[in-house]
Design brief:
- Helix content is about 55%, strand content about 5%.
- It has about 500 residues and is α/β, with parallel strands linked by helices.
- An 8-stranded parallel barrel has the order 1-2-3-4-5-6-7-8, surrounded by 8 helices.
Length: about 500
């Protein structure tokens, strides 16, 4: 594996290599291939590599399941050490040579991920078909690698050690010095960075508190600030409470910046082990806040919290905009615009109007079937059916920061939806619908099978109204999608309130 290389491997990478050997063995392979290493990185769900995949539109665990279908239990340990294939060797060597060892840094899972994708283009295509924005991911990973160096310039990611000067090669292949835990290097870096980290953390806490639908972001930000204040006190470093400017910094960007600083500190040469663990904990909390306060994180949290989803379209006598306005006022969490017969220009005009109205009211705005219009109208997501564009193709169009919903009509389709990368599903049709004709009704049996067990939000749909919503809820649904019951009502707001009251009797 090239142990003569100076860049040490992070614990996560070491675990990934061991897991890759087990995966290769379980698949009947006689050597570790790049795909085994990639799956092992994805299964390290809290690793930097898996987080990068998640931030760029992929579900790490679902992708891992699709990439490998072991013939034995994946957890079974390989009886003898398996060698790395030549391509896997080159990728690992590349990952270790992507930074200068004297900086005291480790090759992390994002370095390994980047190197695997560079050395095995087939992995790039497999990730693309799983909805990952690979081009943006490679760009992000490369920029993060540059930031990780903290001092000096990184080795270009497409270079190897043979392109370094003889002096640099000798330095990169010699083991790092092992000075005492009170080394001047660490103390200097701590004196410089910890006060800055504390000031950013104060600002981050303020931003996270003000960030609606950010889940536990504010709690994590508070824990992060406490960790940093404790670290500064332990080092005898004064840490002021004045937030770093600019005051309007986005919470997600501030958290990402803080993560980079803490990682640089935690991997400093000669850092005391207890301090390294404390700062690593801070880095994990910063990354958690970054994910939760990102646009994609907030949208997914909001769709998880949603209970009532209203589709508006051509059958709204009051018009789609007015119906949408009343539906949101009555308690709808999500509005979907469904217009099948409008021209593209007319559809975009209406989408812009309805989208602005819905977002201003605090609800989610979803486009039906049209990812292109969803992008142009600034929609929060797009919903597709089983006959429309596949989820992976839609993800490539809309990117990681929009929701994708998928209609499902069988338990098999519902189970597959999460693996395909859908953020939520429609489950039905439950009853005959006045807005859409179906050859077969799924009925309440599908609700019973799918809704209580779905790993992603599941909205029962199809002919649901005040006369039968109680039966749907008793069958296990906790989220409901309606159209005619609201659109055709003389008072859409009152009709929505009636449905919402029924749903709110049942907790998520």
């Amino acid at each position: 594996m090239g142990t003569d290389r100076a860049a040490p491997l992070s614990p996560a990478v070491e675990r990934a290599i061991r897991q890759a050997a087990n995966l290769a063995h379980s698949c009947g392979a006689d050597q570790i291939e790049p795909v085994h290493l990639l799956v092992a990185v994805l299964l390290e769900t809290e690793s930097r590599g898996a987080t990068l995949i998640a931030r760029h539109g992929g579900d790490p665990e679902a992708i891992a399941c699709r990439l490998l279908k072991p013939t034995q239990q994946a957890s079974q340990i390989a009886p003898t050490p398996l060698p790395l294939s030549p391509t896997a060797q080159a990728a690992l060597r590349h990952a270790r040579s992507s930074m200068l060892v004297p900086r005291g840094l480790h090759a992390s899972t994002d370095h390994l991920l980047l190197s695997l994708l560079r050395h095995d283009p087939t992995l790039q295509e497999q990730l693309r078909t799983s909805g990952v924005d690979v081009d943006q991911l490679l760009q992000t990973a490369a920029s993060r690698t540059e930031q990780d160096t903290f001092h000096g310039s990184p080795i270009p990611l497409d270079d190897d050690l043979s392109k370094l000067s003889p002096q640099e090669q000798a330095t990169s292949q010699s083991p790092p010095a092992d000075p005492s835990p009170t080394s001047a290097h660490y103390q200097r870096k701590a004196q410089e960075l910890l006060p800055l980290c504390v000031r950013i953390a104060y600002r981050l806490l303020e931003s996270a508190d003000a960030c609606e639908s950010a889940g536990t972001a504010a709690v994590d930000a508070a824990r992060l600030l406490a960790v940093l204040l404790e670290a500064a006190a332990q080092q005898g470093i004064p840490a002021g409470a004045e937030p770093v400017q600019p005051a309007a910094e986005d919470a997600s960007l501030a958290a990402a910046r803080l993560w980079g600083l803490l990682h640089a500190l935690a991997t400093s040469p000669s850092i005391p082990p207890d301090m390294a663990e404390r700062l690593a904990q801070g880095a994990r909390l910063a990354e958690s806040v970054a994910i939760q306060t990102s646009r994609s994180g907030q949208l997914r949290r909001r769709i998880h919290q949603a209970r009532l989803y209203v589709l508006v379209g051509a059958d709204c006598p009051l018009g789609v905009a007015e119906t949408a306005r009343q539906a949101v006022a009555g308690g709808a969490d999500v509005i979907q615009l469904r217009l099948k017969r409008s021209t593209d220009r007319e559809l975009l005009r209406i989408a812009l109007e309805v989208g602005a109205l819905v977002r201003k009211s605090g609800a989610l705005f979803i486009m039906n079937d049209r990812p292109d219009v969803a992008i142009l109208a600034g929609a929060d997501g797009v919903h597709v059916g089983q006959e429309e564009l596949p989820v992976a193709a839609v993800r490539r169009l809309v990117g990681p920061d929009r929701l994708i919903g998928l209609s499902t009509h069988t338990p098999e389709q519902a189970r597959e939806a999460a693996e395909l990368g859908a953020d939520y599903i429609g489950v039905g049709p439950i009853f005959p619908s006045k807005t859409k004709q179906f050859d077969r009704l799924a009925g309440l049996a599908l609700v019973e099978q799918v809704c209580p067990n779905s790993p992603i939000p599941a909205f029962a749909i199809g002919g649901i109204g005040p006369e039968n919503i109680e039966a749907v809820l008793k069958a296990g649904a906790r989220r409901v999608a309606v159209s005619h019951a609201v659109c055709a009502a003389p008072d859409p707001e009152a009709a929505t309130r009636q449905l919402r009251a029924a749903i709110d009797k049942y907790t998520l």
